[in-house]
Structures are given as C-alpha cells and as structure tokens.
C-alpha cells in the first residue's frame, strides 16, 4: 500500500470552513475513499486545513490533563492505595475528550519536538483504604472504620460516603506554598510508521512516565476505530521513591462516531490493563460502549486483584476469582466512577460503601506552561506549525493549506536526501525510535532539556 497521501479535495471558502456541517460532509467524503484500508494512520492522508484543529499533534497528546492527579501517585504506603492513585490519574488523562469535541491535530514531522511544564497543587485527597474497609470487604480488619465512615462528609450529589476525586486544577497561592513542577518532552521518532516518544518527570515527587505513542485507525463505514499500534505498549509510570515500582497502563479502543448524525463523539470500548509486577496487583478496566437497546453508556466495569506476573492470564473481569479480588470499580468515565472494597458485585454494595474515585464533571483541562517564542527552535511544534495555526485562526484556509503542503513537501525532500545518501535518521532526545519494550530512554540531550525545564529555563543554547 502506498504511503503517499491522496490529493486533498478542493479547499472550502472561509464561510464553508466555519460551518460544522460542511466540515463533516467533507471529512466523510474523504473517509469513504478509505473503506477497507487496514490502517488509516499509516496512510497519513492529508486533510484540508479547514478540517484541522489548529494544534500540533505532539502538543495535543500529553495525558496530563489533570496534573494534580499525576503528582498524587505513589503517596500511599499501601500497594492497593497506590494502584487506586494510578487509576485515578488514568481516568483524568483524557479530560479533553470528556469535556471537549473530537478533533484532528496536525500530522507530526520527523524530528519535530514539543516541551512544556505544568505547575500544580499537591491537593488530591489521600487514598487510605484502611479507613474505608467494612466488614464485607476482603481486606484485613480495621479499627475505627465505623467512626471514620460516620465522620466522612456526605456529598449532596452522591450517595458515596467518601469522595477521593481530584479538585479542579489550580496553582497554590503564596500562602499555600511553592507549586509542584512537572516537565514534559516529546519527539516524533519515526515517520513510517508514525511514532512519537514522550517522557514526563516530577523530580520533587520522584515520579516519571514514558512511552511511545502510535495509533492504528480503520474506517468501518459508520465510525473510525482507533487502536494502539504495535509500538505503543502503553504508559509506563515509575515511582523512584518506592524502589522504582513501575506500572504499565495499556490503551483501550476508541471510536469516532456521529459522522452521519452531524455531531462527532468519542466512545471507548474493550479493555485497558494496569499492571504492577512489583506489588503483584493488576487492574482490568472494561469499557462498556453500549447498553440495553444499543444506547451508549460510556461506562467502566473494573476489578483490582492479586495476580502472578509470571502467569498473567486474566484478561476479563469475569476471569478473576473472588478470592483474588481487592476492589471493584464502576461508573461512566465521562462523569463519576466509584469503587468498593472486596469481591462483592457493585450492584450488591450499599451506597455508603461506594467511594467516589473521580468526578469528571467539574474538571477542566489544565493549562500548560510553554516556552517563550524567542526560545523555540525551528523544528519545535508551536513554531514549526505557527504559520498554519495563525492562518486557520484568521480563517485564511487557502493560505493555511499552502503552508501545510509546503511543510509536508519539505519533509518528503529531506527523506529523499537521506535515502540518496544512505543516512539513517536518529532521534535527538530519545535513544530509541521504537522498541525497547515500549519504554524510550532519554539521550543526554533529552535529560539536559528536562533538567533546564525543571528550573524554568527554556534556553537550549549549548544543548543543540
């Protein structure tokens, strides 16, 4: 299959580009050409600019929509509580889908990179299941649990006795202390297939996350199904202050629907797995896309359980025997998810023993701290695509498409020259283009970039 993109359709006028119905009709017309294509992502077809979100792909995929959930990972001394902290973060990583509309960012260019910081409060409620245990749970007996539960404030909007959801993101006032800083670096490491590597660090909390991003996509005729590609093994979170305890979080399937209704929507299906070989605890999150009569539910049914890393053969919630179950989860991932301790099915757990782990409804995507324009290099995402973005925002779609095509052709020309000279392209900030078990390592230059970012220094002089 040829990897060259098809010719884009005629560019719409600014008025047409502004009309959502016109956008969808154009998008659907392009997709119809690809019915039966195994992987739309590998084709990397070029969309006209009026159909694009004015955002670089590398800026869009960051997973840190709620950074205060990320910095809370690893707080508890109990392994089960740390798994719940990881799951709470996982359920916040795609706030952009729960709170906003689906969109198509720019395709990334080989060697393009993006960096940013977040500054956040360490204000997520502490998870302490010892204080939440009840006689019906499978965990060890507790002292004073009844008193703790009676003392817990009940929310007017929830029957749960305890809410462990993260609050809306914000940076602390001067009285509250210095904010925690999270630094992020990502680079497009491969063009065929399209793969990017990312690395996140919060040294003060001893937390890092890394992985390769790659998707495969297929148009089914009614929706676009998106799955992780072969090099995307998920997000790997390491807790340095817990003897480098590591969690692997794998991605489920996503569906872009509403193409014929005129309102795009994202739903999620199949399974996500979170495993920690160090604690021998695993979570299965089953995303239930449809309920009775085909109604979309956006629901999660989950189980946290003890497992054997050498014999990891439990892939469905129903595969897990009751004696291994530590906790169960349930609820719509776009709204509120609760958990209960022990093996009992959630429908049999009384409301006072169901605890809110996340409430998405009041949350919004946290803003990034970006380098100043004068510190950005030519192949840095926001500068590389800056002209295209400015043109789209001013509704000059013909100009935006011209600039976008010029960038894409420049990338093809660089590829032709490398092929003529028998040159192999290597990433600048990461040791691996793909592979390494899905866990990219930083080069010395990558480490230096993040070290400077942690100091609020965006100057790359002496590094590149």
TrEMBL record:
GO terms for molecular function: sterol binding. PROSITE patterns: OSBP. Residues 1-11 have a biased composition (Pro residues). Pfam families: Oxysterol_BP. One of its GO terms (cellular component) is cytosol. Residues 165-174 have a biased composition (Polar residues). Residues 393-423 form a coiled coil. Keywords: Coiled coil. The keyword Coiled coil applies. Residues 1-20, 158-178 are annotated as: Disordered. Belongs to the OSBP family. This is Oxysterol-binding protein-like protein 1. It comes from Hypocrea jecorina (strain ATCC 56765 / BCRC 32924 / NRRL 11460 / Rut C-30). The lineage of its organism: Eukaryota, Fungi, Dikarya, Ascomycota, Pezizomycotina.
């Amino acid at each position: 299959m040829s990897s060259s993109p098809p010719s884009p359709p005629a560019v719409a006028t600014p008025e047409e580009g502004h009309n959502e119905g016109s956008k969808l009709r154009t998008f659907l017309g392009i997709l119809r050409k690809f019915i039966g294509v195994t992987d739309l992502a590998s084709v990397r077809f070029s969309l006209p600019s009026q159909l694009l979100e004015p955002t670089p792909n590398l800026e869009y995929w960051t997973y840190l929509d709620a950074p205060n959930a990320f910095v809370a990972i690893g707080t508890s001394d109990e392994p089960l509580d740390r798994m719940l902290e990881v799951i709470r973060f996982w359920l916040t990583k795609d706030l952009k889908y729960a709170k906003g509309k689906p969109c198509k960012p720019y395709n990334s260019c080989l060697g393009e990179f993006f960096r940013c910081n977040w500054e956040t409060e360490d204000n997520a409620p502490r998870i302490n299941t010892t204080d939440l245990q009840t006689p019906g749970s499978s965990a060890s007996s507790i002292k004073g649990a009844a008193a703790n539960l009676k003392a817990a404030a009940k929310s007017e909007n929830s029957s749960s006795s305890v809410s462990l959801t993260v609050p809306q993101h914000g940076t602390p006032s001067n009285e509250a202390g210095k904010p925690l800083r999270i630094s992020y670096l990502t680079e497009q490491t491969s063009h065929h297939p399209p793969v990017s590597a990312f690395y996140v660090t919060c040294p003060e909390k001893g937390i890092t996350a890394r992985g390769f991003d790659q998707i495969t996509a297929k148009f089914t005729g009614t929706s676009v199904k998106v799955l992780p590609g072969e090099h995307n093994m998920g997000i790997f979170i390491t807790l340095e202050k817990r003897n480098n305890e590591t969690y692997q979080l794998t991605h489920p399937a996503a569906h872009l629907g509403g193409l014929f209704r005129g309102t795009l929507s994202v739903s999620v299906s199949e399974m996500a797995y979170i495993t920690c070989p160090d604690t021998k605890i695993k979570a299965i999150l089953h995303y239930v896309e449809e309920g009775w009569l085909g109604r979309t539910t956006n629901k999660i049914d989950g189980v946290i359980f003890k497992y054997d890393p050498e014999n990891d053969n439990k892939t469905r919630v129903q595969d897990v025997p009751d004696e291994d179950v530590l906790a169960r989860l349930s609820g719509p991932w776009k709204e509120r998810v609760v958990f209960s301790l022990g093996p009992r099915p959630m429908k049999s757990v009384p409301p006072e023993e169901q605890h809110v782990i996340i409430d998405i409804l009041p949350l919004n995507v946290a803003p990034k701290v970006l380098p100043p324009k004068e510190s950005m290099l030519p192949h840095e995402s926001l500068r590389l695509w800056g002209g295209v973005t400015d043109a789209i925002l001013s509704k000059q779609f013909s100009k935006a498409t011209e600039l976008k095509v010029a960038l894409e052709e420049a990338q093809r020309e660089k590829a032709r020259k490398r092929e003529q000279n028998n040159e192999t392209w290597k990433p600048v900030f990461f040791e691996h283009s793909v592979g390494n078990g899905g866990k990219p390592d930083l080069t010395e230059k990558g480490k230096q970039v993040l070290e400077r970012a942690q100091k609020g220094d965006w100057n790359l002089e002496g590094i590149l």
